[in-house]
């Protein structure tokens, strides 16, 4: 089977999306990356809005490179616009550029539909206002956030700086049900190293923004439906099987 090509759009300082997606895509697809422009002097909300506005130009930055799927590795920017606008804009970009396109949030929404769940626990490294927007986003998508677990980096809100050890400790302290569905939101927070510990000895379904993005992209790039299964997370998160 030939390898697919997946394009990934990444915020400029995101440290986790590329290594995690490369690991998750594995030998089935090559990854090609373009980073959003640096926008100094703007607030986080303003930068997130700029990411949404820049999408057509970002897709054009791949030039004539043939891609089988394209993913926007950013969740926060889509929490600003809501799920229906997110889906609509992704569909329009797919049509305009002739390549399947999804944001991390749309890929996650489709992953929830795939596993057949409506209730989940949200693990959020965001500032409180963005966490509130995330809750609203998923409620408008017909899903129910039953609990929010905020996570911090050395006591402060900084998604890119949360270590796997900090993530594991804070989630374990939240004492989640053994059969919970858990979403770790944010493509810039390192999550894969934490899933082994958090998924051992229980029946939880652990989803992450990067895991869902890779699952969606591989389904598009290979033309084969992939299953998000319940196998132990120590064998590479929730493995994606054909």
Summarize the structure.
With 242 residues, the chain is an alpha/beta fold. The chain has helices at residues 17-25, 44-60, 76-79, 83-97, 104-115, 128-140, 164-173, 192-199, 209-222; strands at 4-10, 29-35, 69-72, 101-103, 119-124, 144-150, 181-184, 205-208, 227-228, 240-241.
Can you describe what's shown?
The chain starts with a strand and ends with a strand. The chain is built from nine helices and ten strands. Mean pLDDT is 93; it is low at 230-242. A four-stranded parallel sheet has the order 2-1-3-4, with helices on both faces. Strands 6-5-7-8 form a four-stranded parallel sheet, with helices on both faces. Helix 5 (104-115) crosses helix 9 (209-222). The chain is 42% helix and 19% strand. It folds into two domains: 4-103, Rossmann fold, CATH 3.40.50.12500; 109-208, Rossmann fold (3-Layer(aba) Sandwich). With 242 residues, the protein is of the alpha/beta class. It has helices at residues 17-25, 44-60, 76-79, 83-97, 104-115, 128-140, 164-173, 192-199, 209-222; strands at 4-10, 29-35, 69-72, 101-103, 119-124, 144-150, 181-184, 205-208, 227-228, 240-241. The longest helix has 17 residues, at 44-60.
């Amino acid at each position: 089977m030939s390898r697919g090509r997946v394009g990934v759009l990444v915020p400029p300082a995101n440290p986790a999306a590329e290594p995690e997606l490369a690991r998750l895509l594995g030998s089935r697809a090559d990854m090609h990356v373009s980073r959003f422009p640096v926008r100094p002097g703007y607030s986080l909300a303003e930068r997130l809005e700029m990411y949404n506005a820049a999408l057509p130009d970002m897709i054009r930055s791949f030039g004539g490179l043939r891609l089988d799927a394209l993913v926007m590795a950013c969740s926060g920017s889509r929490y600003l616009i809501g799920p229906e606008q997110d889906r609509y804009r992704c569909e329009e970009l797919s049509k305009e550029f002739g390549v399947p396109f999804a944001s991390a949030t749309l890929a996650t929404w489709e992953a929830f539909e795939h596993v057949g769940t409506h209730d989940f626990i949200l693990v959020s490294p965001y500032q409180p206002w963005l966490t509130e927007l995330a809750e609203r986003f998923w409620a408008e998508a017909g899903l129910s956030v039953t609990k929010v677990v905020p996570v911090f980096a050395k006591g402060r809100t900084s998604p890119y700086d949360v270590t796997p050890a900090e993530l594991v400790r804070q989630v374990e302290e939240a004492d989640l049900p053994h059969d919970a569905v858990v979403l770790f939101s944010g493509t810039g927070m390192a999550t894969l190293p934490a899933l082994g510990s958090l998924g051992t000895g229980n029946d939880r379904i652990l989803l992450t923004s990067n895991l869902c993005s890779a699952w969606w992209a591989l389904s598009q790039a290979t033309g084969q439906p992939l299953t998000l299964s319940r196998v132990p997370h120590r064998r590479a998160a929730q493995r994606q099987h054909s």
